[in-house]
Design brief:
Blueprint lengths: L1 E4 L2 E4 L5 E7 L13 H14 L3 E5 L12 H15 L7 E5 L3 H10 L3 E4 L7 H9 L2 E5 L17 H18 L7 E4 L8 H9 L12 E3 L4 H7 L8 H13 L4 E4 L2 H15 L1
Parallel strand pairs: 3-4, 3-10, 4-5, 5-6, 6-7, 7-8, 9-10
Antiparallel strand pairs: 1-2
Length: 276
């Protein structure tokens, strides 16, 4: 299986990739956001040193108890970072975390290999932007628009609903001109899902291999971990995150999105050696 992202081509099977989270906002749920671009660049260099294969850059918190920022503010934050990022002598893949088409178009015009869309693709605009720029598209399962609570959502069968969703969104992306090898799938842990929905996805993640695309598992410090362990503070959930990475590896996930890159990288390297 191949993943293409602009000039980069990645072939699976290979060791699982680590996507390091970089929040260019002060209201990250995990408390690790940074306020200015120079600090964010320095933070990205630490993530790279710790083993990040991908940096996932976001400028707006996905928390539903925080007001959204304007499109222009999001563009200014992202593009300011990308301009400095492009001057670094050695860089891993850069993922742009946004769901707004105007923001995606402006930021991907400057750089970035992946668009991490948490908006559940209500239409094909972001797929078309990726088709035009050469970026890969990360499709996340959810219901409804971001920044709005969806704790009321109930599924008769969350796995069947998720598979139907990906069938529809993959077809939409292909029709928009985006090649199959430029798609990544994300089950959207904690997004429009309850604890038992999330646990069912962790236990049955391998069902998504039927689509023949890399699976990104966003495991880091999630609410479901806090619910299972009784830990309210997100920053204290790294041990639970490691457990979820282990299960994800057994289920065949290829990419893990995390805050603590060093712990995740060491977990993946150790488990891959033990399993092989």
């Amino acid at each position: 299986m191949q993943l293409s992202a602009r000039q980069t081509s990645i072939h699976f099977p290979r060791p699982a990739m680590i996507m390091g989270i970089l929040n260019l906002s002060v209201d990250s749920f995990s408390g690790d956001g940074v306020a200015d671009i120079e600090t964010a660049i320095a933070r990205s260099e630490v993530l790279i040193k710790d083993g990040a294969d991908i940096i996932d850059l976001g400028a707006e918190s996905a928390r539903t108890n925080r007001e959204p920022i304007s499109e222009q503010e999001e563009i200014d934050r992202l593009c300011g970072f990308i301009e400095l990022w492009n001057k670094l002598p050695s860089r891993p893949l850069l993922s742009i975390n946004t769901w707004r088409p105007k923001v995606a178009a402006a930021s991907l015009a400057l750089g970035g290999e992946i668009l991490n869309d948490i908006g559940a693709l209500p239409d094909d605009q972001n797929a078309r932007i990726c088709a035009q720029t050469g970026a890969a598209l990360l499709i996340m399962h959810s219901i409804g628009v971001p920044k709005v609570p969806h704790t009321h959502v109930q599924y008769e069968n969350v796995l069947a609903a998720m598979e139907s969703f990906f069938e529809e969104k993959i077809a939409m992306s292909l029709a928009a001109g985006l090649p199959h090898e430029r798609l990544i799938l994300d089950p959207g842990i904690d997004f429009a899902k309850q604890r038992d929905d999330n646990l069912a996805i962790y236990a049955n993640l391998s069902r998504l291999h039927r689509f023949g695309r890399p699976i990104l598992l966003p495991v880091s410090r999630k609410t479901v971990i806090g619910e299972v362990l009784g830990i309210a503070n997100a920053a204290d959930r790294d041990a639970g995150t490691v457990a979820c990475i282990a299960e994800g590896l057994l289920q065949g996930a290829q990419i893990f999105r995390v805050h603590n890159v060093k712990a995740a990288s060491q977990t993946v390297r150790t488990l891959c050696r033990l399993l092989n």
